[in-house]
Amino acid sequence: MSRVVDVLSIALLAFAAIAFTLGVKALGDERDLAALYWLVAGALLLRSATDILRPKGA
Amino acid sequence: MANTVDGGDRGEATELLQRANLLLPGVYAWASTVLYPATLRGSGVIPKVAAGAALASLVAGAFVSPRNADLGRNLGLHGFVGLSAMTWVVLGNLVRVDRLEPMKAALGVIGWVLFAFGWRALRKPTSVPADDPHVLPGEPLRPRGRLPIGAVAVLGGAVVCAAPPLLFAWRVTRADHALFAHAVGILCSIGLVTTGADIAVRRGRWRPLEPPMRRLSQATIPLTALGIVALAGIIELLSN
């Protein structure tokens, strides 16, 4: 289970990278709402990836 | 005598390497981002003169630098960058964001990054701590911990993943949005590399402290928000 959480954090990081890429790509395609959506999703994915690794109180 | 000759050869080789480090990326950055727009039709004489002066400043700086670092830096770094910037300013609309080719611009960025690395210099240590007379004798101290397995791979993956947002920012052609896209791309890349480093180092360190479910519960707020965002995306996708 512990190892699964480790893998989950790395997966969340990878998904964050994909979301950021899609966000900036959508900005280039003039789809501003989609860009905002993917950038917010990327930020949340990144935050989740770090929070599940951080010791309590840190 | 042989040692002197060897020392002289080594010195010349070092100077040559130093010049090549400055000249090669500098000329590449200049050719891709300064020469190219300066030679476009309708650019006029002043940009061409400024571009030529920038190259001359770079070459002079590279040749002077090994013997006179300050003068070399003023010519090869400040002079070159200043004259290149002046070329772009006098080119005006010819270097507007929507007129740039994304691939050439991205390659130009790589050229300027390499040029910046070419000017790197390590500070010479004023004293070696181990030579201090008060130093305690004995075996050097060993680190108490080791990096988790796969730390380098995780960090390497994060660095690779940080590149696409920077590259895709060059696809944004709307003038108002282009700068924003670059800022967002840089922020995303910094976030990915920082988080990647965090994950690479922290993995495996929590074991005696935190049970897995508590670790997951620490991320409740961002994971819940993520679920809401994902749900909104799915609803939007289905409604279309």
Relative helix content of chain B: over 70%
What is the overall pLDDT average of chain B? 82
- The SSE order of chain B reads HHHHHHHHH
Q: Structural class of the helix and strand makeup of chain A?
A: mainly alpha
Biggest sheet architecture of chain B: none
Strand fraction of chain B equals under 5%
Catalogue the unreliable spans of chain B. Answer: 1-5
Strands of chain B, total number: 0
Describe this structure in words.
The complex is a heterodimer of chains A (58) and B (240). With 58 residues, chain A is mainly α. Chain A contains two helices and no strands. The two termini of chain A are 22 Å apart. The longest helix of chain A has 27 residues, at 2-28. Chain B is mainly alpha-helical and 240 residues long. Chain B contains nine helices and no strands. In chain B, helix 2 packs antiparallel against helix 3. Chain B is flat. Classes of the chains: A mainly alpha (58), B mainly alpha (240). Chains A and B meet through helix 1 and helix 2 of A and helix 5, helix 6, helix 7, helix 8 and helix 9 of B.
Name the features.
heterodimer, A: about 60 residues, mainly alpha, B: about 240 residues, 9 helices, about 70% helix, disordered N terminus
Secondary structure: elements and pairs:
The complex is a heterodimer of chains A (58) and B (240).
Chain A: H1 2-28, H2 32-51
Helix pairs in contact in A: 1-2
Chain B: H1 2-38, H2 45-64, H3 69-91, H4 102-118, H5 151-161, H6 163-168, H7 175-202, H8 212-218, H9 220-239
